[in-house]
Amino acid sequence: MARHSSPVTHHSSWRRHFAIFWDAFLTVAIGAGLFDAAQRGGLWHARGLWMLLLALAFLITHRWLWAPVHHASGEWPPRYRDLLIVVGVEFVLVLALLPASAWFALLFLALLGQIAAAAPIRRWWLPLPIILLTLAAPIGLYDALAAQRWGAAAGLAAVIAWLPALFLYIRLFFDEREERAVLERDLRAAHAEIERVTPLLRRLDALQSREQALTDMRGGMHHTLAYVSLQLDTVRQQLPDDPATAGVTLATLHDLVQQRLREIAPGGEESAESAAPEPDQSAAPSGDTEAAPT
User: Does the first or last residue of the chain, that is N or C, have fewer Cβ atoms within 10 Å of its Cβ?
Assistant: First the structure.
């Protein structure tokens, strides 16, 4: 069972198995107690009917406590205050049944099981010692101590001490299973979330790559245009005095611009050349044309 400070609605399979086990255990324990009481004086009289009512009340109280686990609905574990109330009522019922048969002392084990399953370990200090000290009477520990039968007393004390250790081991074992189940559920949920987010991450990577490419292209175009501007200024200065050198520089600039166009978009060179205006042939000078008279 996971350690929660407040009730939760999750019900694991081990809780249902634990509840079914205690149902079967109580059926055997109450059946043995009633059978033993019937052998002593029968059940079909006022005292016997009273025992039947007490046993039925214990079963109803126990079933009510475990109802959320059996039906996989409601809150579990119950609030600690509610658990103490239920255990207190059942404790009184067992005390009322004990004079009829010592077999009813087995019901104290069901109380220990309820505490182990529903109460945090740090809160066992109050109900557990009370139940164990009460259980010591019907199993004969106090009689053995009074008669100074130390060997029997030591054995019975070992049984009493062994019970909380057993329930602690069961609780820790089930806690570990519960935590593992929670981790597995979280892992499956995380895996599903990763599968859902992976396509979005791929699209984001593609957009970031395109943005980086545009950034690099913008930087390259900035340097190219600055270089072209500088060379055009040089050509402007050389053109009157050295037209040949200016022509070579213009050809170099033309090649550079065409190269950049091919890098930006294939076919950009052809598009630029097709978009360039054709020279006006009618305005071109011709050697066969006679000069206009002055």
Answer: C
Measured in degrees and rounded to the nearest 5, phi and psi for residue 206 equal -65, -40
**Secondary structure, 3-state, 15-45:** HHHHHHHHHHHHHHHHHHHHHHHHHHHCCCC
CA dist 57 and 258 (Å) reads 97
Cβ–Cβ under 8 Å, residues 34 and 43: yes
Q: Would the CA dihedral through 235, 237, 243, 245 be positive or negative?
A: negative
Q: Report the 10 Å Cβ neighbour count for 124.
A: 17
* Of 81, 143, 87, 82, the residue nearest 113 (C-alpha): 87
Closest to 231 (Cα-Cα) out of 197, 256, 208: 256
Cα 184 from chain centre:
8
Assess contact for 66 and 108: CB atoms under 8 A: no
* Rounded distance between C-alpha atoms, residue 103 and residue 108, angstroms: 10
Is the bond leading into 78 cis (omega within 30 degrees of zero)? no
Q: Domain coordinates of the chain in residue numbers?
A: 13-190
Please give the structure tokens belonging to residue 279: 């020279």
- Host H or E run for residue 103: none
Question: What's the CA gap between 252 and 130, in Å, rounded?
Answer: 101
C-beta contacts of 280-289 below 8 A and 24+ residues apart: none
Whether this model's pTM surpasses 0.90:
no
Average pLDDT (271-290) is 46
Q: What is the pLDDT of residues 182-218, one digit of tens each?
A: 898 899 998 898 888 888 888 888 888 888 877 877 7
Contacts of residue 109, defined as CB under 8 A and 6 or more positions apart, other chains included, come to 25, 29, 163
DSSP conformation class of 124: T
